[in-house]
Q: What sequence folds into this?
């Protein structure tokens, strides 16, 4: 197997990519335990978060937000502990998350 590309993906995207074999079934069962959102909602949320144009918000951070769906600033800061966001940025991100 050759790795062509490496990029972070959300749990809904993983569900879309895994096969129907036994290994894929185990992955699906594991992820479903986290209650991931629907793939269409995850894609829309990702697009909205990218459109915020917050430079500090990288792909890996967006995936974490989609997977954990923080509901307040404290949760968001825990999810993105490596990123220092100001109050306005936090509010914009939480406004997007609340839609989903």
A:
């Amino acid at each position: 197997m050759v790795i062509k590309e490496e990029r972070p993906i959300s749990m809904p995207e993983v569900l879309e990519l895994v096969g129907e074999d036994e290994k894929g079934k185990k992955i699906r069962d594991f992820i479903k335990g986290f209650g991931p959102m629907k793939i269409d909602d995850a894609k829309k949320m990702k697009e909205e978060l990218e459109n915020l144009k917050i430079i500090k918000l990288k792909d890996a951070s967006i995936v974490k937000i989609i997977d954990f769906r923080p509901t307040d600033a404290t949760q968001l800061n825990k999810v993105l502990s490596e990123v220092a966001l100001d109050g306005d940025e936090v509010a914009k991100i939480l406004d997007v998350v609340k839609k989903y």
Notes: The chain has a mean pLDDT of 93.
